[in-house]
UniProtKB/TrEMBL annotation:
It comes from the Eukaryota. This is USP domain-containing protein. InterPro entries: Papain-like_cys_pep_sf, Peptidase_C19_UCH, USP, USP_CS. GO terms for biological process: protein deubiquitination. GO terms for molecular function: cysteine-type deubiquitinase activity. Residues 1-89 form the USP domain.
Length: 93
């Protein structure tokens, strides 16, 4: 039984880029790692949201409406991040 939830999601005001310090965070009893986030392409008046998810040790995929493909850019290059999903490192899928 975990003392902390296996997953934590944060809805944030859209930020540009993903700083390295946002990739993990620790509480007094658990350590979390970033496993997914939303990204927005376009302007504030229109555009497209995609999900970016981590599978395995460090392989990131971009999940759009009809396609899932390996990312060809660094996650730090993401344009407008709006939601972030973290996994408790003690939780095994």
């Amino acid at each position: 039984m975990l003392d902390q939830p296996p997953f934590v999601a944060f809805r944030i005001q859209q930020v540009s880029g993903l700083p390295k310090k946002a990739r993990t965070f620790d509480t007094s009893v658990a350590s979390y790692e970033l496993i997914g986030f939303t990204d927005h392409y376009g302007s504030q008046y229109g555009g497209h949201y995609v999900a970016k998810m981590k599978f395995g040790s460090n392989v990131w995929y971009e999940c759009s409406d009809q396609t899932i493909r390996p990312m060809t850019t660094n996650i730090s290059d993401s344009t407008r991040i709006g939601m972030m999903l973290y996994r408790n490192k003690s939780y095994q899928l």
